[in-house]
Design brief:
Layout: H1 9-71, H2 75-78, E1 82-83, E2 88-90, E3 93-100, E4 114-122, E5 125-139, E6 147-149, E7 153-163, E8 167-169, E9 172-176, E10 179-181, E11 184-186, E12 189-192, E13 199-200, H3 213-218, E14 222-223, E15 231-232, E16 235-239, E17 242-243, E18 258-262, E19 268-276, E20 278-282, E21 289-297, E22 304-309, E23 312-316, E24 321-322, E25 352-353, E26 356-363, E27 367-369, E28 374-380, E29 384-393, H4 397-400, E30 407-413, E31 419-420
Parallel strand pairs: 6-8, 6-28, 7-9, 7-10, 7-29, 8-11, 9-12, 11-13, 14-18, 16-19, 17-19, 18-20, 19-21, 20-22, 21-23, 21-26, 22-26, 23-27, 26-28, 27-29, 28-29
Antiparallel strand pairs: 1-3, 2-3, 3-4, 4-5, 5-30, 5-31, 15-16, 24-25
Amino acid sequence: MMCKATKPRGLRRGGAYIAALGIGMLTVIIGAGSLAVARVRARTGDVERDISGARLRARAGVEAARAYIAHNPLWRSKMSNGDWFGQKVLGSGTFAVSVTNTLGTLNRAETDPVVVTGEGVCGIAKQRMSVRLDAVRTPRTCLGTAMTVGGLVTLTTTTLTATGAAVASNLTINSVLSTVNADAEASVSVLGTGFKKSVTALAPARTMPDSTVFAALKAMGTVISIGSIPRSNSMNQLKNVVLSPNSNPYGAPDPGGVYVIDCGARVLEISDCRIIGTLIILDPGAGSAVTGSVAWAPAVSGFPSLLVQGDFTIKTSTTALSESILLGYNYNPAGTPNPYPSGTSNTTLLDSYSSQIDGLIYVSGNVTTANAPRLGMLVVGGSLSSTGTLTLTYDGTCFASPPPGFYDISMQLSPGTWRYVVD
């Protein structure tokens, strides 16, 4: 009978030891690997936190530039293209910002867009992001009325008619034996009788043109010397002429039809003429006025027809502006057709033109109206006194595209222009 073989007890104990040792080593390796993974994850988390912090600081740089622009109206002239603030500490990191007008110098034009780039640093991370700011023009609210007067409006035996929009005063409207065929609003009170439409007192004051309005348009225009305008009856008379982008009897024509007359306190009378353009009158003498029959409209859509720095009188009539064979007056010569610019010129000297001033009129001082002027929009910085009839027809062109000096500019984020910047 054969006996069953058995393993020595020593061998069994050795194998168990080896197995236990292997398991222990495996446990150590797994533990060490887990620690390494944890350290990698920790470092990754630190990097991600640094990147996030750097991005927040880059955005802070952009917002710092936006705040500076919003609270400093002269930012374009005070600053220049390039770095603005340098490195500024923010918490455990820093930020910097640069601003650039890609069209030229920062102050090239108030309507130019700019690109703002913020750079943020946090820990080991650096991030840069940029956005474009567009110049958004907001019209002054005076452009939303047929007439806005900064001071007192006094209507005496006047028939005032406004079509398309209200008439407004930033003080009081006082109607004396007058008829007002218009919605009327005033920041203080509306007094008297004859109001045929709505009346609103304690209305918000309308915002008026700023002090740059004359300088901005003057820089665009051509000067007409007051001495070149014929003088009669102690006044210079701009009379029986055509003034347009292609016609200037006093000198070289201005392509935009913008003409500047510095009266030097002399009296200027504008009468019996056709004007296609913008006339800027500076320092007019007492009694300066537009009278008689005039056919007047701006050459550039949205531009004013008349700007006066001082006091002025408007007392035109409804009598048509007529050409004269006897005197040789031709009011639609070559280059200034009627209607402008798509009409036809001729030399017949038999035509007539409706007497009215279309477009926007702004007078910084006081205005007196008499006779029967027919106007587009009227903005008066001072007071208005009116007799006779005054007819206004509102045109929203200026509100939709306000001329220089008649709008506020805000720099707004341009949608879709946020970018991460990579060197």
